[in-house]
Fold this sequence. Notes:
Elements: H1 9-20, H2 26-41, E1 45-52, E2 57-63, E3 76-78, E4 93-96, H3 108-113, E5 117-125, E6 128-137, H4 146-208, H5 212-239, E7 245-248, H6 249-263, E8 268-273, E9 278-281, H7 284-298, E10 305-312, E11 316-323, H8 330-338, H9 350-361, E12 365-371, E13 374-382, H10 393-411, E14 415-420, E15 425-428, H11 430-435, H12 440-443, H13 458-468, E16 470-478, E17 484-496, E18 499-506
Parallel strand pairs: 8-10
Antiparallel strand pairs: 1-2, 1-6, 2-3, 4-5, 5-6, 7-9, 10-11, 11-13, 12-13, 14-15, 14-18, 16-17, 17-18
Helix pairs in contact: 1-2, 1-4, 2-4, 4-5, 6-7, 7-9
Amino acid sequence: MTHNANSSIEAARTELYEIIQTDVPFEEKAREALNVGTECLGVDTAHLARIDRQTNSWEALISTDQSNGQFPQGVKIDLSTTYCRRVGREPPSIALSDAPNQGWADDPAFETHGLHCYLGTSLVVDGESYGTACFVATDSREEFSDKEIMFAELIAKLLEREIKCEQQKAALARQTNLATVLNRVLRHNVRNNLSAIRGFTQLMADNLGDTQYSKVTLRNIDNLLALSDKARQLDRIVAADTKPEPVDMTALAETITTRISRRYPTASVRVVSDEAVTATVLPSFEQALVELVDNAVKHSGEAPTVTICVEAGPTGVEIHIADTGPGLASHEIAVLETDTETPLIHGSGLGLWLANWVVTRHNGTIDATVTDEGTNMTISLPRNLQTEGVIHQHVSELYRARDLFEATFQEASDAMIIINNDAQIVHANVEAGRIYGTDQQALLGQSIARFFPDDFDFEATWSGFEESGYARDTVTIVGEDGLEREVEYSAKTDIVPGQHLIIGRLVTE
């Protein structure tokens, strides 16, 4: 982007604001801003410098200098040889138009680099000194005016804001990555381990007899497995939230009523509405409503009565879900009021939290009123949802790719298992259960080594597999049912870090 050196500061300021508002990477934006400053101030080069006073270093993060110039981008120099070392909050700027004639002739900065002209202003990000925006030239010039100094400080302020935005984006990306990893671990690894634990617990329970302890243990394991399955289900629901659409709330409530009534035959669930009421919602809203109605039915006794009332207001829609149960517990209400989960304030599951989260994303609210007659949950929604696309399309494609892999894995005609670095099975399909002579869930948590004959040198085979990253052979498998089967297999390490895929096919037949 070019700029006439004789243009006024006002014109340069307009151009600067246009640059800052563009949707381009930070580095490109910062360099263009420095270019405007260079041309407006009549200097040779400009630099966004990072200063580290602990290591006494000055680094040109962004520079308008050439790669073979005196201060190219990425160069690091001793801070004590720069004018920037003197720039701080007091004074926030230093302006030198002819350094040696202004008392800086014996300063290390002039002696080392020979810069007659320097205008530097400090950068402060989140209350901490960050560095400087500086404009330099080898030759002297006329004294910098107050307007020129203020213009340099404006560039610094705008760069401060952009740096802070970049830091926030990076922090958000780190948090998102962490949440993704934790979500994957909770949904996949924990579920697989629980499946293995359940299998072994059932075996122990069968051997010990029908004891109360085994029933309690298995019930708690099943609750955790159900919770894990719910997390996976909700994950897919969230991934589908790409575009809000107008929905007839009365028709939606009636559809949900039919579904819940089939699930709970003894329940009486009905919809009350005077007219068709439409609201613009994301696909996830249906599941939020299901969770609330399902929760009302489950906690309202053996023959619950639940009424769903849909009403249109002047600016939005209200949906009331009234039950005749004992009333929502205080810690569940706290989840709605605080919109968070803490060790002291937590719901009994994901359903209520999910419903609240979905409604909040619609700029709506959920209010709970508990009386002696039961609980009344009121969902308030704006009639129109303003959104720019809650989740980007490429995220949905990633989820679809994941689901496609899972479907392919489970339906494959060959036996497929995934093992970890300890050779333990963490995932298996139905065909794998047939080859290894047991149910696929019973395979989880077991070492693949136990299915080979006693004379098989598993350690040598495993070592070679880890070293080469690939293996193909025909081996004898001794199944859980005691039968030997000849299996042709191929294996690949690290299909994801720390997990390895083995595909087997019976050749006995």
